[in-house]
């Protein structure tokens, strides 16, 4: 492990305050012989000094293209558009294997530079279960924002906050409502249930069994719905434009945590643009009203809790980087996606 070099990059998205490695876990990695370079980042929820104190080297934001070739660049969200050729191994959420917008362009950049995407979404155990995920907090926040909006208490623009503050807002919110969580047995689903519980709402919970023969009437009879489904093969849409036009629709607030916009897996294919922190809610219908919340960086609203949980889950994988079968599976997935586009991938240096 002595030559392992991780490079924690600054996130270019200005609202992204999370990090995949928190200072206490950086310290564990350093103690285990891992060299860590941390790009200074004005928005990261943990100060750069905390990484320095943990034994990391510090550099300027955005320096990763000039990192040593053996360095593994670690981040969360999208890379900047430059450089055109990606030469390193990159650990982050690439959103590149489900035909999403920009997916092919990203894979082409890796092919051009000979680097590799080790996509965190595909870091799985030998049963295919995700090893590190933000799902719980995504579901928690999707449901929390939906309840607060439905009850007339959502303050915008959204800003990151501490969990205790969000809990207090949920407990203070009032108003009868019926809620449905789809994908309720998953990580986001359990987060959504936790937020609804905090708000005093006991939701209807559906997962695969309940949507196999979908009762759209029952779905539309809820005031609020939270979609937290993760599907890997296309399924018929849960709702279409036509369903939203049903005059007897009771549904008023829809939080789509999944936000599979533009993907063939999208179970809610009636909108094509996400919402954001400045404008978290978009009105889809006027009579009767229907409001959509479709934010793709929900856990960033609770950056400390989300980062800490994620980093805890990722740490054993980073400590086991050389031998871990999970990273090999990640690399295989990248190569398969590249080959499907007839792109050539290069052999990586043997660690
Ligand atoms: N908006 C955000 O900021 C954000 C952040 C993190 C994750 N996500 C997304 O949230 C989604 C859920 O992630 P997760 O970690 O909870 O996944 P998960 O695998 O833990 O849970 C998904 C659940 O969906 C269920 N499911 C699959 N197909 C279904 C179907 N046809 N009908 C009903 N239920 C079905 C599964 O059985 C599972 O219980 C993913 O798409 C993920 O990308 C969004």
From TrEMBL:
It comes from Streptomyces neyagawaensis. The lineage of its organism: Bacteria, Bacillati, Actinomycetota, Actinomycetes, Kitasatosporales. This is Saccharopine dehydrogenase [NAD(+), L-lysine-forming]. Pathway: Amino-acid biosynthesis; L-lysine biosynthesis via AAA pathway; L-lysine from L-alpha-aminoadipate (fungal route): step 3/3. It holds the Pfam family AlaDh_PNT_N. Keywords: Amino-acid biosynthesis, Disulfide bond, NAD, Oxidoreductase. SMART domains: AlaDh_PNT_C, AlaDh_PNT_N. Its EC number is 1.5.1.7. PANTHER family: SACCHAROPINE DEHYDROGENASE, SACCHAROPINE DEHYDROGENASE [NAD(+), L-LYSINE-FORMING]. It is an enzyme of class 1 (oxidoreductase). Residues 166-294 form the Alanine dehydrogenase/pyridine nucleotide transhydrogenase NAD(H)-binding domain. Belongs to the AlaDH/PNT family. It catalyses: L-saccharopine + NAD(+) + H2O = L-lysine + 2-oxoglutarate + NADH + H(+). Residues 7-141 form the Alanine dehydrogenase/pyridine nucleotide transhydrogenase N-terminal domain. Monomer.
């Amino acid at each position: 492990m002595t030559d392992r070099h991780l490079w924690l990059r600054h996130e270019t998205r200005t609202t992204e305050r999370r990090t995949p490695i928190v200072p206490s876990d950086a310290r564990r990695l350093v103690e285990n012989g891992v060299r860590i370079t941390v790009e200074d980042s004005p928005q990261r929820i943990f100060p750069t000094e905390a990484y320095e104190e943990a034994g990391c080297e510090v550099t300027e934001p955005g320096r990763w293209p000039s990192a040593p070739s053996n360095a593994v660049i670690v981040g969360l969200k999208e890379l900047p558009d430059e450089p055109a050729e990606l030469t390193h191994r990159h650990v982050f959420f690439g959103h590149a294997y489900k035909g999403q917008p920009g997916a092919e362009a990203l894979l082409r950049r890796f092919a051009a530079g000979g680097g590799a995407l080790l996509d965190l979404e595909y870091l799985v155990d030998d049963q295919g279960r995700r090893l590190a995920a933000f799902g719980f907090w995504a579901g928690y926040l999707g449901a929390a924002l939906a309840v607060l909006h439905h009850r007339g208490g959502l303050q915008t623009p959204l800003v990151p906050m501490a969990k205790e503050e969000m809990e207090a807002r949920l407990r203070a919110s009032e108003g009868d409502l019926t809620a449905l969580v789809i994908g309720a047995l998953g990580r986001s689903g359990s987060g959504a249930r936790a937020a609804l519980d905090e708000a005093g709402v006991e939701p209807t919970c559906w997962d695969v069994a309940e949507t196999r023969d979908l009762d759209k009437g029952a779905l539309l009879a809820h005031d609020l719905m939270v979609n937290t489904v993760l599907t890997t093969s296309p399924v018929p849409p849960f709702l279409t434009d036509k369903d939203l036009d049903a005059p007897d629709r009771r549904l008023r607030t829809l939080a789509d945590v999944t936000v599979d916009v533009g993907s063939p897996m999208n179970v809610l294919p009636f909108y094509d643009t996400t919402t954001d922190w400045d404008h978290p809610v978009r009105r889809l219908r006027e009579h009767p009203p229907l409001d959509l919340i479709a934010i793709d960086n929900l856990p960033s609203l609770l950056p400390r809790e989300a980062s800490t949980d994620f980093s805890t889950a990722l740490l054993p994988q980073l400590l086991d980087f050389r031998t871990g079968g999970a990273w090999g599976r990640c690399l295989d997935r990248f190569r398969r996606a590249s080959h499907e586009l007839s792109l050539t991938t290069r052999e990586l240096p043997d660690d």
